[in-house]
């Protein structure tokens, strides 16, 4: 398993230059899955070259989709006339996004079987919202020892209230409804920009989806789509990750090819700590500073502070002068990484699975860590660059799942990270 050797700056600001943002992981994966809704080809551009994209391609090829790489970041998907309906067990288990294939396969073929999806260990991550909705649309759900088997001779449209505004449930049910004859209405939907991007792309290909990006989405469905092109939008979580790194280690580091307006909550939180943030239409420029003010960081569904940036942002809070509070409202297991940051020298009290206090500023010292999930892994990389002395981060596959060549890109602006296989 590969690991990163990170040389710590000990608080000095050494990153400068231009850092372009890649295509959005949590957007491209759903567009790949959307190939199930098409009769003919789907073209996808600006894909980030990350592990989850290749896993999703493996899964789709196993189901019968023919995939050609037509350029470095472009793929062409040719769906089969008939899909295989059992998702590959190992691949599906390796990432959460496999769940978005289930509804479209069920609607297209009348049956689907799959294991409970895997992915980041940040909480229970149940799938009851999906299963309840499939039942409302006429499906019968059976849970075996290893897999779920869901059958629906003919799915029917329904009015569905999501018990929680789940991002992938909103996307999965929206795509499922495209193939179900009649009008389906989804209430209490997630409003993330990736959902709007997905609906816009499907509508351009002939779907009739209204309200995406708001809490109520209606879909008039019933036909396969003919063909379509998806241009992956920039990754707002990657842009936010780089802005946080820049606030700690940057000196005139410009983050480009991004959409600052999609991470307003993050930029406002940076400003609240005292960081001067300049934003343009598609760039962010931060003037890092030596001392930060403490804040209360509360994660919320979009447009609130994104849960995916809670871990990276906590490294700033270890350098803030005073007591900060982290309140992780979305996942019950997303503060576990803090014990590693504590062992680097941070003063942290874990109050309960959702809340922690951080007293700063404290000197962080480099140490050996194991990346437990994608965003905690990025937080460890950030802490390693801030720390005095070197750090070793194991299990970097978790970071490669969502960040393309992260060490090469950070080294190009002044970091000192070595990948050791
Ligand atoms: C998506 O995960 C993202 N992943 C996550 O990003 C992100 O953290 C999350 O949305 C929240 O923004 C992808 O898009 C691939 P949820 P998702 O369903 O859809 C509960 C990253 O690092 N819930 O919105 O799985 C759930 O337990 C990843 O890029 C149910 O109770 O998240 C959680 O508490 C990590 N039942 C809450 O909803 C369900 O059936 C929100 O989860 C589904 C979810």
Automatic annotation (TrEMBL):
Protein name per Swiss-Prot or TrEMBL: UDP-N-acetylglucosamine 1-carboxyvinyltransferase
GO cellular component, one term: cytoplasm
Enzyme Commission number(s) of this protein: 2.5.1.7
Span of domain Enolpyruvate transferase: 14-410
Modified residues (2-(S-cysteinyl)pyruvic acid O-phosphothioketal): 120
Top-level taxon: Bacteria
Positions bound to UDP-N-acetyl-alpha-D-glucosamine: 96, 308, 330
Homology family: Belongs to the EPSP synthase family. MurA subfamily.
Catalytic activity entry: phosphoenolpyruvate + UDP-N-acetyl-alpha-D-glucosamine = UDP-N-acetyl-3-O-(1-carboxyvinyl)-alpha-D-glucosamine + phosphate
Recorded metabolic or biological pathway in which this protein acts: Cell wall biogenesis; peptidoglycan biosynthesis
Residues where phosphoenolpyruvate binds: 25-26
GO terms of biological process kind: cell division; cell wall organization; peptidoglycan biosynthetic process; regulation of cell shape; UDP-N-acetylgalactosamine biosynthetic process
Pfam families per the UniProt record, alphabetical: EPSP_synthase
Enzyme class: transferase
Function: Cell wall formation. Adds enolpyruvyl to UDP-N-acetylglucosamine.
Keywords: Cell cycle, Cell division, Cell shape, Cell wall biogenesis/degradation, Cytoplasm, Peptidoglycan synthesis, Pyruvate, Transferase
Active site residues according to the UniProt entry: 120 (proton donor)
Main location: cytoplasm
Localisation per UniProt entry: Cytoplasm
A Gene Ontology molecular function term of the record: UDP-N-acetylglucosamine 1-carboxyvinyltransferase activity
């Amino acid at each position: 398993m590969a690991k990163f050797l990170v040389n710590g700056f000990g608080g000095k600001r050494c990153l400068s230059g231009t850092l372009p943002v890649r295509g959005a992981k949590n957007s491209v994966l759903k567009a790949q899955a959307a190939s199930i809704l098409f009769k003919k080809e789907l073209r996808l551009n600006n894909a980030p070259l990350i592990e989850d994209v290749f896993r999703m391609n493996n899964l789709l090829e196993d189901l019968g989709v023919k995939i050609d790489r037509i350029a470095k970041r472009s793929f062409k998907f040719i769906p089969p006339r008939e899909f295989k309906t059992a998702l590959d067990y190992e691949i599906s288990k390796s990432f959460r996004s496999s769940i978005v294939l289930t509804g479209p396969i069920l609607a297209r073929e009348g049956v689907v079987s799959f294991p409970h999806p895997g992915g980041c260990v940040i909480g229970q991550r149940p799938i009851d919202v999906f299963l309840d909705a499939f039942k409302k649309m006429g499906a019968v759900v059976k849970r075996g020892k290893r897999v779920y088997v869901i059958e629906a001779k003919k799915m029917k449209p329904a009015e569905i209230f999501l018990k929680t505004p789940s991002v992938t449930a909103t996307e999965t049910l929206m795509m499922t409804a495209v193939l179900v004859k009649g009008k389906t209405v989804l209430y209490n939907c997630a409003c993330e920009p990736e959902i709007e991007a997905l609906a816009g792309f499907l509508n351009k290909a002939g779907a009739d989806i209204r309200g995406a990006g708001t809490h109520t989405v209606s879909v008039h469905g019933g036909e396969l789509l003919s063909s379509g092109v998806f241009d992956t939008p920039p990754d707002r979580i990657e842009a936010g990750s780089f802005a946080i790194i820049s606030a700690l280690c940057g000196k005139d580091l410009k983050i480009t090819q991004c959409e600052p307006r999609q991470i307003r909550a993050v930029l406002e939180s940076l400003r609240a700590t005292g960081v001067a943030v300049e934003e343009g239409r598609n760039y962010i420029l931060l003037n890092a500073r030596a001392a930060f003010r403490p804040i209360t960081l509360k994660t919320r569904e979009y447009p609130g502070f994104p849960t995916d940036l809670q871990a990276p942002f906590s490294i700033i809070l270890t350098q803030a002068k005073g007591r900060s509070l982290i309140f992780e409202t979305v996942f019950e297991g997303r503060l576990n990484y803090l014990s590693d940051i504590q062992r680097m020298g941070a003063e942290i009290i874990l109050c309960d699975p959702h809340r922690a206090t951080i007293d700063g500023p404290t000197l962080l010292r480099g140490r050996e860590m194991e990346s437990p999930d994608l965003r905690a892994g990025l937080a460890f990389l950030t802490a390693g660059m801030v720390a005095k002395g070197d750090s070793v981060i194991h299990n970097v596959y978790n970071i490669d799942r969502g960040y393309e060549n992260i060490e090469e890109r950070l080294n190009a602006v002044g970091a000192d990270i070595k990948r050791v296989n």
